[in-house]
Specification:
CATH topology of one domain in chain A: Rossmann fold
Strand content of chain B: 15-25%
Structural class of chain B: alpha/beta
Largest interface: A-B, 30 and 28 residues
Number of strands of chain B: 7
Largest sheet of chain B: 5 strands, mixed
Oligomer: heterodimer
CATH class of the largest domain in chain B: Alpha Beta
CATH topology of the largest domain in chain B: Beta Polymerase, domain 2
Strand order of the largest sheet of chain B: 1-2-5-4-3
Order of helices and strands of chain B: HEEHEEEEHEHH
Order of helices and strands of chain A: HEHEHEHEHH
Helix content of chain B: 10-25%
Number of helices of chain A: 6
Strand content of chain A: 5-15%
Number of helices of chain B: 5
Largest sheet of chain A: 4 strands, parallel
Shape of chain B: globular
Shape of chain A: elongated
Radius of gyration of chain A: 23 Å
Strand order of the largest sheet of chain A: 1-2-3-4
Distance between the termini of chain B: 55 Å
CATH superfamily of the largest domain in chain B: NADH:ubiquinone oxidoreductase Nqo5 subunit
Radius of gyration of chain B: 22 Å
Number of strands of chain A: 4
Chain lengths: 208, 231
């Protein structure tokens, strides 16, 4: 009656050389290959670095070549937070909230001197490096970095993504600092270690 | 078809094009005619008139400055209808008073006038708000309060505008303020991160104010009792 399937659909040949289009690989490699080449960046542009970031995404430098043509302006659909520009203290809770809203796996790129260290803005209003708020994977130096520099940083991040192993448990756990841990350094000690870059209450603008 | 009628009064009535001044001397020169009018109108309150780089600076007593600006705004022979800026200056010298500066512009007469008023240090830094004359003074005075701690009496909503509202370190543009702030970096970061980023907007500032009638009843009740969204 023609209701039975053709017999070739029920059989599996075991001769690998006759199976075109089959690839065997490690699961890690496949997942990392897919992740690294389809990163969706969340642009957090606050200053002039964001202009260079726009140039990177535009046609001259064409970030889409690296699978990043889709800027995700919603953190819930983003993989990479690219912080381009200085972050004032008033923005600190906002960038942390955005980071918490991004689903795992997620990475962060600190673009430019200001986002990485505070840059020339060593003053009362600017966060001295966003790594005091969120974990950063790649720092791109420059003031601002050229688009080639940002692309180089993104390529480094792709290398990092490709070298992750699913056997490394804990790399994606989000932890709050534990004061009972022996590795815990209280903020007062960090302030002392941070001199003279961390804080100087004796310095005034006028030098008086 | 003329869609806008151009009204020309004052100096612009003749239809002459505004010309860029050239070879302006540092001090001295022709003063803005409004300065002389102010001196005649508020004889005792006008302390000094300077002309610096062709721009007139009038020093007015802090108690009379509100009345003077109101007169400049309302008088038909002045018509200072545009408030460019309100700011303040603190000098490094401890004896020199803090100056509050108003930048006024008269579009009909093509005049620019800078009013300054001195506030002695050691006394409460208070001056009358010009919000009732220029509505654009709202944010300018808030910024001036945020950065210098000058209280503008009569301002409807005098709170910080650039720094967050629970900022405890003082007024950043004052000369006694350390460049890096008064607290340590980790304490500054701890206080900043303790902020709820959604909690500092009142209901009126949020776009949901337009859709207030469509909100659920319990939310409307809570908001009308003054609860802040996001808390």
């Amino acid at each position: 009656m023609g209701l039975t399937a053709p017999p070739e659909h029920r059989t599996v040949s075991y001769a690998p050389e006759s199976q075109e289009g089959w690839v065997t690989t490690r699961m890690d490699f496949l997942v990392n290959w897919a992740r690294a080449n389809s990163l969706w960046p969340m642009p957090f542009g606050t200053a002039c670095c964001a202009i260079e970031f726009m140039a990177t995404a535009a046609s001259d430098f064409d970030l889409a070549r690296f699978g990043m043509e889709r800027m995700s302006f919603s953190p819930r659909q983003a993989d990479v937070l690219i912080c381009a520009g200085r972050v004032p203290f008033k923005l600190a809770p906002i960038i942390r909230r955005i980071w918490q809203q991004m689903p795992q796996p997620k990475w962060a790129i600190s673009m430019g001197a200001c986002a990485s260290t505070g840059g020339m803005f060593d003053n009362y209003a600017v966060v001295q490096g966003i790594d005091t708020i969120i974990p950063v994977d790649v720092y791109v130096p420059g003031c601002p970095p050229r688009p080639e520099g940002l692309i180089y940083g993104i390529r480094m991040l792709q290398e990092k993504v490709k070298n992750e192993r699913s056997s490394d448990v804990g790399t994606r756990d989000e932890m709050e600092p534990d004061p009972t841990s022996q590795l815990y350094i209280p903020p007062s000690v960090i302030d002392e270690l941070g001199e003279p870059f961390g804080n100087s209450v004796n310095q005034t603008r006028s030098g008086l | 078809m003329t869609r806008f009628e151009v009204v020309r009064t004052g100096a612009s009535a003749s239809g002459a094009e505004p010309a860029t001044q050239r070879n302006v001397s540092h001090r001295g020169g022709e003063a803005n005619p409004s300065a002389k009018a102010l001196q005649e109108k508020f004889a005792s309150a006008v302390e000094r008139v300077d002309v610096i780089w062709g721009e007139t600076v009038v020093y007015v007593d802090s108690t009379a400055v509100h009345e003077a600006i109101r007169w400049l705004h309302n008088d038909p022979s002045q018509q200072y209808d545009f408030l460019s800026d309100i700011t303040a200056v603190e000098y490094r010298d401890a004896e020199v008073p803090i100056e509050v500066v108003w930048h006024l512009r008269s579009l009909p007469y093509r005049r620019f006038l800078r009013i300054k008023s001195q506030l002695q240090k050691g006394k409460p830094l208070e001056i009358d708000s010009v919000w009732d004359i220029y509505k654009s003074a709202d944010w300018l005075e808030r910024e001036c309060f945020d950065m210098f701690g000058i209280r503008f009496v009569g301002h409807p909503d005098l709170r910080r505008i650039l720094m967050w509202e629970s900022y405890k370190e003082g007024y950043p543009l004052r000369k006694d303020f350390p460049l890096r702030g008064r607290f340590s970096r980790s304490e500054q970061l701890r206080q900043a991160l303790a902020q709820n980023p959604e909690a500092r907007y009142s209901m009126e500032e949020l776009t949901i104010a337009d859709a207030f009638a469509e909100l659920p009843q319990d939310m409307r009740d809570r908001l009308s009792k003054g609860e802040r969204t996001g808390e």
